Amino acid sequence: MTAPQHFFVSFTASLLGATVLAVTAIVFQDWLGEHGVPAPLLALGLFITAHLLIRWYFQHFVSIRCKHCQQKNCYAIPGRSDRFRCEVCGADS
């Protein structure tokens, strides 16, 4: 996976996953209402939390292929947007 593919997949996966959780909360709003939980507020919280957690997962655990040594060991550099460092050769991608 290249850096642009990594960004596209992580962004779309986080939006889709967050949307699925938010819609699930809305579908079960009657049941949640019976238990005193406001479904719209829960849906918003689930959407934001799921989006951030899925993006974090991709940043820390999904690697890309290094341009220099062709091994799939490049992980995101903390604090840098869409910058990756290879753990084998140390090159930035």
Keywords:
93 residues; mainly alpha; two-stranded antiparallel sheet; 3 helices; 58% helix; rod-shaped
Largest sheet: 2 strands, antiparallel
The computed structural class is mainly alpha
Radius of gyration: 18 Å
Form type: rod-shaped
Number of separate strands:
2
As a percent range, the share of helical residues equals 55-70%
Mean pLDDT, all residues: 89
Order of helices and strands: HHHEE
Distance between the termini: 12 Å
Total helices: the number is: 3
Poorly predicted segments: none
Share in β-strands: 5-15%
Strand order, main sheet: write it out.
1-2
Description:
This protein is mainly alpha-helical and 93 residues long. The chain has helices at 3-27, 29-34, 39-61; strands spanning 74-76, 84-86. The longest helix has 25 residues, at 3-27. The model has no long low-confidence stretch (mean pLDDT 89).
Element layout with pairings:
Layout: H1 3-27, H2 29-34, H3 39-61, E1 74-76, E2 84-86
Antiparallel strand pairs: 1-2
Helix pairs in contact: 1-3
In short:
Helices cover 58% and strands 6% of the residues. It is mainly alpha-helical and 93 residues long.
